[in-house]
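Duplicate of #3305? Posting structure anyway:
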């Protein structure tokens, strides 16, 4: 018969619990604490010292109790011992956490004690250290200061003060928003704008003396917070605060460095694409390997730049010939996508200018290409802001037909795709309109966006031209004279009439020039080119003037937005 199991004594229970606690403490000692990643403040060090002393006292008391009850303990098998932890373990852990807590009411306590921010903005020394500190820990607005010291006596004897109500913005719907950017200076007794002061916006809120116009304080504060420069400074401070307040700041800085690296690569790629496309040159060769004499114009141009650009040379050495699956942004896939984006950018700029000019005309003509496909060229003519008339190419339309109805449908469809109003076309003056113009010209003037005062304006403008001794000059020169001397607001109807007349084409030369470009872009070596690629290259080649005015960074951002890849932009 097995021996009857006996219940453990109190000392045995305490000893067993103490052994378990020691094992847990040994494990916890080897685990890094969260506090080790931050600088300890004086209060943390004091709490840590008190906690260590209390732990030593408890261990001594438990050790004495074990010695007293040592002889009363009976050795039992391990399977007869219960392993359940008592609630004292959890109480002890809770007390430990409570004793080790840190006061976070004042954020400056966690900062470098060697750097203390002055609460008065008039005493700030603006540098990168101050910007980072303010972005991470903030600043005091001094709203509880004595504003009676801001007393101002004006010439009419009126006395005014700066009001604490300036720190709260009341919206039209009666909601109230705090003005966290506003700081009161007790020394200068004026107001400062923290973001503008930190990032160099030159206003009355960021100069050496601060803002002290008590009479118009609410109006000036509202104007300042709605200004673009102030909003930009606030955006910069918030962006820096998001970065400074993160525990992965170093990782974020590494990501930013990686982003800048790949943007620099794309800037060089975009520059090569612009140079080749603006001159109608081909991109590809027989192979796509750096160092080969048959790798085409694009890689040849990159190799030429690499001879004088260490950054590009290093990039080509690292990623040049790794093949598919490796991100280098030097392959044909990348520059083909860039060609599409850049062509869209050019077309958008031309359409925007056309809409701003309001009145325009179309030039269309067709010719077969090298693949015997009929291509209809689509060109718009309009007047720029300086008064000069320009003709811009927009696209080739494939196989539109040769009948009048088919050509009209193709033109109307293309205008609708570009969201251009057909009613603004100067060629829409029909024969019936011309006949009606001879009978009741005043009514027809209204139909043509012209007022009845056109006749008087023409007489006054004629007298003005005679006074300036202009002589017999062309309508285009008269149009430039109007815009150069800002007379379009004095003679608005004359300006409208001249725009309608000047934007009317007199020849088909631009269409013929586009056919010459078509033969160079789509030649017998590139006869299998798709219609989209043909239109993109044609726009970039014919409208190289607009292409060269494009912003590199804008193209790169569009590329990053359209095609999300393994690299972050």
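Output from current build:
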């Amino acid at each position: 018969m097995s021996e009857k199991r006996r219940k453990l004594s109190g000392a045995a229970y305490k000893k067993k619990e103490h052994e378990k606690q020691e094992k847990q403490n040994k494990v916890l000692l080897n685990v890094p604490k969260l506090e080790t990643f931050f600088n300890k403040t004086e209060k943390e060090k004091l709490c840590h010292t008190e906690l260590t002393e209390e732990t030593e006292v408890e261990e001594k008391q438990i050790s004495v109790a074990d010695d007293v009850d040592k002889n009363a303990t009976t050795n039992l098998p391990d399977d007869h011992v219960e392993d359940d932890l008592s609630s004292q373990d959890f109480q002890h852990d809770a007390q430990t956490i409570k004793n080790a807590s840190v006061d976070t009411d004042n954020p400056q306590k966690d900062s470098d004690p060697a750097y203390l921010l002055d609460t008065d903005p008039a005493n700030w020394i603006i540098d990168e250290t101050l910007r980072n500190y303010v972005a991470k820990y903030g600043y005091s607005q001094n709203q509880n200061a004595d504003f009676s010291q801001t007393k101002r006596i004006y010439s009419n004897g009126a006395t005014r003060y700066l009001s604490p109500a300036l720190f709260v913005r009341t919206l039209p719907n009666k909601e109230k928003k705090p003005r966290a950017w506003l700081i009161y200076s007790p020394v200068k007794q004026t107001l400062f704008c923290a973001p503008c002061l930190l990032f160099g916006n030159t206003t009355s809120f960021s100069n050496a003396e601060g803002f002290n116009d008590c009479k118009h304080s609410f109006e000036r504060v509202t104007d300042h917070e709605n200004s673009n420069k102030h909003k930009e400074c606030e955006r910069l401070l918030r962006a820096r605060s998001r970065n400074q307040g993160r525990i992965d700041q170093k990782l974020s800085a590494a990501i930013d460095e990686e982003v800048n690296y790949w943007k620099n690569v794309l800037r060089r790629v975009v520059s090569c694409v612009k140079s080749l496309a603006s001159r109608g040159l081909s991109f590809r060769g027989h192979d796509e390997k750096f160092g080969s004499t048959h790798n085409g114009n694009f890689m040849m141009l990159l190799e030429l730049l690499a001879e004088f650009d260490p950054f590009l040379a290093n990039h080509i050495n690292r990623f040049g010939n790794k093949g598919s699956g490796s991100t280098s942004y030097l392959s044909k896939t990348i520059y083909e996508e860039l060609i599409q984006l850049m062509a869209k950018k050019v077309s958008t700029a031309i359409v925007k200018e056309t809409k701003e000019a309001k009145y325009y005309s179309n030039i269309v003509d067709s010719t077969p290409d090298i693949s015997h496909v009929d291509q209809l060229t689509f060109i718009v003519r309009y007047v720029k802001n300086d008064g000069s008339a320009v003709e811009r190419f927009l696209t080739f339309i494939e196989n539109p037909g040769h009948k009048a109805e088919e050509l009209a449908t193709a033109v109307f469809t293309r205008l609708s795709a570009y969201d251009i109003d057909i009613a603004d076309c100067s060629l829409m003056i029909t024969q019936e309109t011309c006949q009606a113009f001879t009978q009741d010209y005043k009514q027809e003037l209204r139909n043509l966006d012209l007022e009845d005062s056109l006749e008087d304006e023409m007489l006054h403008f004629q007298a003005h031209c005679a006074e300036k001794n202009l002589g017999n000059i062309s309508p285009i020169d008269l149009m430039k004279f109007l815009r150069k001397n800002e007379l379009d607001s004095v003679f608005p109807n004359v300006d409208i009439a001249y725009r309608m007349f000047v934007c009317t084409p007199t020849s088909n030369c631009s269409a013929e020039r586009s056919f010459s470009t078509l033969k160079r872009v789509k030649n017998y070596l590139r006869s299998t080119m798709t219609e989209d690629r043909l239109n993109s290259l044609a726009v970039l080649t014919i409208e190289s003037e607009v292409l060269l005015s494009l912003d590199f960074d804008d193209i790169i951002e569009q590329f990053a937005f359209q095609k999300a890849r393994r690299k972050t932009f």
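Confirmed duplicate; merging threads. Residues 10-99 form one domain. The chain has 21 helices and nine strands.
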